[in-house]
UniProtKB/TrEMBL annotation:
Protein name: Iron-sulfur cluster carrier protein
GO biological process, one term: iron-sulfur cluster assembly
Single GO molecular function: ATP binding
Residues annotated to bind ATP: 125-132
Annotated Gly residues bias: 97-107
Keywords attached to this entry: ATP-binding, Hydrolase, Iron, Iron-sulfur, Metal-binding, Nucleotide-binding
Domain of life: Bacteria
Protein family (similarity comment): Belongs to the Mrp/NBP35 ATP-binding proteins family.
HAMAP family attached to this UniProt entry: Mrp_NBP35 (MF_02040)
PROSITE patterns per record: MRP (PS01215)
Membrane-spanning intervals of the chain: none
Taxon lineage: Bacteria, Pseudomonadati, Pseudomonadota, Alphaproteobacteria, Acetobacterales
Pfam families reported in the protein's UniProt record: ParA
Renumbered residue ranges of the record's region Disordered: 85-107
Amino acid sequence: MTQRGVPERTEVEAILRDVADATSGRGLLDIARVESCAIVDGRLRVVLTVAAADAAAVDRLTGAAEHALDSAFAPVRSQVMLTAHREQTPAQRPAAPGGGHRPLGGVGGGASSLDVGAVIAVASGKGGVGKSTTAVNLAVGLALEGLSVGLMDADVHGPSLPRMLGVAERPEVRDGRLIPARAWGVSAMSIGMLVDENQAMIWRGPMVMGAIGQLLNDVDWGRLDVLIIDMPPGTGDAQLTLAQKATLTGAIIVSTPQDIALLDARRGIAMFEKTRVPVLGLIENMSYFCCPNCGHRTELFGHGGAREEAARLDAPFLGEIPLLADIRASADSGAPIVAAAPESEAAQAYRKLAATVAESLRRTMRRPPAGA
């Protein structure tokens, strides 16, 4: 095993190669392949890709597979999951990898159009810490810094990006690809642009992962300097899929100052470490509140917790965002505060964050950014 405690794919495959169907004699890896392996919530989670026709046969072998992995990598317990790929008609079948579940329908069908200098995940270990608001204002702030920016809403179950950007129209489909909406200098796409705002997305893991794959690969993003991905909260299948399939340049972690939020943020950081995605830094949101009448500063949730956590992890601390009613109001009205009220305290905090990230991107991107 590696020093981090995560088995290499080759190690997992070596164990699973000995698992076979006693009746037919077919080996597990003859009818399935290892798509990913990572430590999630203390367990070794192995995701197998299998053709839909063979899913039942592979499912019968998962118990034996988990037993073999448990024995090989004790004391870590294992969990084997399947991602079944449906057969498609020639008209539906994509010319490049990325098929499987296509819950967005017949959109797609060509090679991936993703041409981007850097892909950054904005994440948190839990909901309610202002991650989406941060992602939106960071994306618009990066556009104001002169970068070509895309913004993808990966929260399939609770998409909020259309409301925050003030986008109400459905995206155009051109040559089988979705055309992202343009708002506030950013190219944006969300499943919330494709369904009714009040519709519940009651989807299981494979459907969610399929939708995320389509939002990445079946959208005509054009040539981007940076794609910001607003990650769903938690550390489940959707996060694992994005961490491993989106070729993330790095992740930005959003947390509030109090210990309970930082506890969840640590889980998100651990997930990115296990999937070898660099943590670009931490942001402390709702860091303090300033009374609009007297200007008195109150630290409602404590203060400095995210900065201390960044120091403990030897990761950059990217800044503090205040708790202000104007931030909430701007999000509800569809006008990101970084553009709608650029002189406000909140906008200045987001602009400082964007400038820091833009400077880092310009140093590390493989190609010159737009306007360089």
